[in-house]
């Protein structure tokens, strides 16, 4: 039994091992520069909070057998809207933030409805969503503007002091909170289990009497919400409203989920894996920054290599595991 | 009327269901009592699956009444049906492969505690459900890692977990081995004793008699009758399913030409079989011969064809072509040896709907020649025109997309596809199903003349008359096993029916 559980977790275990190896490598290589410190560790989450939040939503979508390409676009739109609402119209954050979150969720719902009820490919529907959101963001504001009001107070209120002058910054806090909620949603609610079921075999899920429509629309709504939350986090992190925010973020999110062991075909995966996947992004980025001479774009190349490695690994495991015993 | 226990569990009266152009069910009655296993029998197109879909809310009935547990019912969705206590376990087990047995049993009905799913309760409930069936299985195991037999039982456990009163088993045994079938029967008997009504759909006659109390027979969407299993002889069951009274079923093809067989068979199967789909059998096909393959649906006819054509690979026995052993690993290799195969399911396995008649005809020939040697357009046109004329294919022109043709004409195009590649062996699986009488006769005529030219033809059909009329020799299959071989004068409808009916000795 224990052996079997281990086997089922090979993709996740491999991700975790790679993560630890990368971390140890960085810690040893840059020992004198304090790579191995709480401050740097916190930064892994701080710098990638918006990626992590978007990847949470993406993981649900992929688990359900779909894909959401609109994530980056929504981040840009939300970022711009937040700036306009708070700067130009003086809206207080307690109104502006829920409003943009609702907008993101609503966009997700609309896409989910198209995907489910019109049986359109998720790839195309969310591609349209991406163009719409990004275009809208650029129409509203063609370049980045600073947000001066409220941001500092939000960031200081939401941060968690950790003692010895360190603190968990607001975006990291939002990310970790979202992750814990997502774990609960995926593993301890009917909705979460239905997501796995729909992604595992939609026809079976229908015949088993599961609410397929509600689940699918729910998943895109959730992803839209996460994208919007990522947009809010981005704005808090950069203190700006940037129509180009989150360019290509959806692809990073997909990569993080897949590196974390989520199968693109749906039904199999772990949120914890995505979490580690995002962490790997952070470690690679930080290592490259510490290294100093390499361009930060090397992150992409390393991630590409890892991604390839992981899908090959999964393919191998799948081929072994899914052969029916008869 | 007030005491529901006196009523049968399920009472369907005069159920009708039409689809555009087809009357799928006409005034069908179906009654299931508490504590009985009721077999629903019928050949292809009899209406069994339509009836079950009406019962489980996949389709809505056009007419008739349905009384379940003393209440009028009209389920709109499978969920509706489940809610009132009608559960179905399909042939293709419908579970979520990557989730655990426990989760599959409880999915959608899990209970929560303080907003968290209670995983311990899920586990306990699943264990209880499996124990009720008398099956020991680790409920934490992933379903994909379980055998089909266990998956089937998990599906049944799930059905029972929703307090089903009526359990519909749609061909549950088609992928089980004998031991697994016995275990399933044990479970069915146990549930029957607990007062459940069980509807059992299967093609295996032995299994019907092994476990059923009553049998309802449908044919062409019509209700034929309801019988006590114990007092319905097999042969009568078969004649009712096939729609032939035994007295009139003596059609013999008097004018059939005797076939002069050569020395070595073109194709010779020795003990060729495949676990779970076909028991080892011997089969010889000679050049210029029409070999009929008869049997009920699910008896192994199509499975034989698939093995011959390399779609599936046998796991036992040897196949000889012209006396030399061969192993076919793919249809491609079969085509290289000049075999042709018109599959049963024309729509999904044969035609390429949006390609033109010409393109569909040239396909097999082009594959045989390899893509490097392109069949010239002039040659293509010539071929298409030749076959359109020769087979009397009704199409405005050769460039018409094949999907716009009628079924019979599509079938002729598929035939033309293979004829263009000059096969030595042509496998025809139900070539005349669903096509009109005129086209049917033309195809039969074509079969005879092709055999006359020396082609070997394996002819599979559910239509006994057609089988008798066209075959030089008939091999009868039952329950995935060859049961007898009839030659020349021995071939008659009643002989085939008796061979199908004969109980396992």
Q: Descriptors for this entry?
A:
heterodimer; A: 326 residues; mainly alpha; globular; B: 505 residues; alpha/beta; Rossmann fold; 3 domains
Task: Explain what the structure shows.
The complex is a heterodimer of chains A (326) and B (505). Chain A has 326 residues and is mostly helical. Chain A has a single domain, classed as ABC transporter involved in vitamin B12 uptake, BtuC (Orthogonal Bundle). In chain A, 74% of the residues lie in helices and 3% in strands. Chain A has helices spanning 2-8, 10-29, 38-47, 49-63, 71-88, 93-117, 122-140, 151-158, 170-188, 190-200, 202-207, 212-238, 249-259, 271-291, 298-321, and strands at residues 145-146, 160-163, 166-168, 240-241. Chain A has a two-stranded antiparallel ribbon. Chain A has a two-stranded antiparallel ribbon with strand order 2-3. The longest helix of chain A has 27 residues, at 212-238. The radius of gyration of chain A is 20 Å and the shape is globular. Chain B is an alpha/beta fold and 505 residues long. Chain B has 3 domains: 4-246, P-loop containing nucleotide triphosphate hydrolases (Rossmann fold); 247-338 and 427-505, P-loop containing nucleotide triphosphate hydrolases (Rossmann fold), CATH 3.40.50.300; 346-422, no CATH class. Helices cover 34% and strands 24% of the residues of chain B. In chain B, helix 4 (119-132) crosses helix 5 (148-161) and helix 12 (357-369) packs parallel to helix 14 (407-420). The longest helix of chain B is centred in the middle third of the chain and has 16 residues, at 178-193. Chain B is globular. The two termini of chain B are 46 Å apart. The model of chain B has no long low-confidence stretch (mean pLDDT 84). Classes of the chains: A mainly alpha (326), B alpha/beta (505). The interface between A and B is medium-sized, with 31 and 32 residues.
